[in-house]
Amino acid sequence: MATTPQTPLGLFDTDSLIGEEDGAIAATVRKFVDDRIRPSIADWFEAGKAPVRDLALELGSLGVLGMHLTGYGCAGTSTTAYGLACLELEAGDSGIRSLVSVQGSLAMYAIWKHGSDAQKDEWLPRMATGEALGCFGLTESDFGSNPGGMRTRARRDGDDWVLDGTKMWITNGSIADVAVVWARTEEGVRGFVVPTATPGFSAPEIKKKMSMRASVTSELVLDGVRLPADALLPEAVGLAGPLSCLTEARFGLIFGSMGAARDCLQAAIEYAGQRDIFDRKLASFQLTQAKLADMTLELGKGMLLALHLGRLKDEGRLRPEQVSLGKLNNVREAIAIARECRTILGAAGITLEHSIIRHANNLESVLTYEGTTEVHQLVIGQALTGESAFR
Question: 376 in a domain, yes or no?
Answer without folding.
Answer: yes
